[in-house]
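Would you kindly consider the sequence and fold I have copied below?
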Amino acid sequence: MTTSPRAAVVGVGTTTFGRLPGLSADDLGGWALREAIADAGLTPADIDGLITSRVSSYEAIASDNAIQPRWVTHLPAEGRMAGVAVQTALAALATGQCRTVALVYGNDGASARATYGGAGEGYGTSPSLMLPYGMTSPGAFYAMMLQRHRHLYGTTEEQLAAVSMTFREHARLNPNAVMRKPVSMQDYLTSRYVVEPLHLLDYCLINDGGVALILTVPEAAPDHPRPPVYVLGAAQQGQLVNSDFPPEDFWAGAISDASARALRLAGRERTDIDALMIYDNFSPNVLFTLEGLGYCAPGESGEFIQDGRIGIRGDLPVNTSGGHLSESYLQGWGLSVEAVRQLRGECGPRQVPDVSLIQWTCSSPIVTSIIYGTEP
């Protein structure tokens, strides 16, 4: 079974990643936007829709880059908005609000010394009654979730290490990745705890960078110089009741629901998927997502990821760019660009062979799942 594509990605752009002092989030978002427009073979005058996130405003991005949109929206800064942005673009295109929409993200977190935790920060843990008990950062919540997973299923540190080790191997093949030094099992086990049982190498990399994508209506896809990548299906599922508390099912129910609907819209099955892009703000999220997607039973993800299974030449490649753990933490946006570049066949030594369908998934209080493919 196949269905009509929802949209086509015809341009992507990224900045370099790392510490880029002197460049604001708007500068970085604009840099990526200009790269994406050129990649699509367009000019700013061709862009009639605009979605922004983590930059100061849509006004600044539009004005600085000579875009005069007829439809525009600005999303919150949380990483879960990366998937919401794509869904929002699909809705705008499907209803005729615009024909070619730019999605723009800029992050100066490293230079701005964003902490994602503690008093006064704006991107991590909202003030709540849990703060006096030490739950002052997203890492604390994921540490609790991992501790529960270990208690229920016996997941070991050595099993979890495969996530950091594999993604670093992928990053070694990515010239734009921030961290490219190999990680051994000993490196992982001896790295310091940040919030036990999470090691330093279980944490994403807060850096500066920008990402942009250009989406258009499917019938216009052949008019652009790059091979189009189609958005075949997308869905989301909120799990927001008592969302201050780590979910007992590790978001598995919401992940399963969103994934099933996205695949159904795409007219595809889970067995059709060639690779995954998983929101890896913390390495245990890879385990939780694999279980929620149904690749393994609850509690079996630690064993499932062993023996190179999630490597580029494995049965199920995951986060081939190095992901948030080794490429850079671009809050999910960079993983969509990696999906597009993989499907175009542009990834050189880290290219997945014969890839035609990639699923992007973010597990969080708003789970999103997107199916990208080469064929409509």
User: Anything to note?
Assistant: Residues 138-153 form the longest helix (16 residues). The radius of gyration is 19 Å.
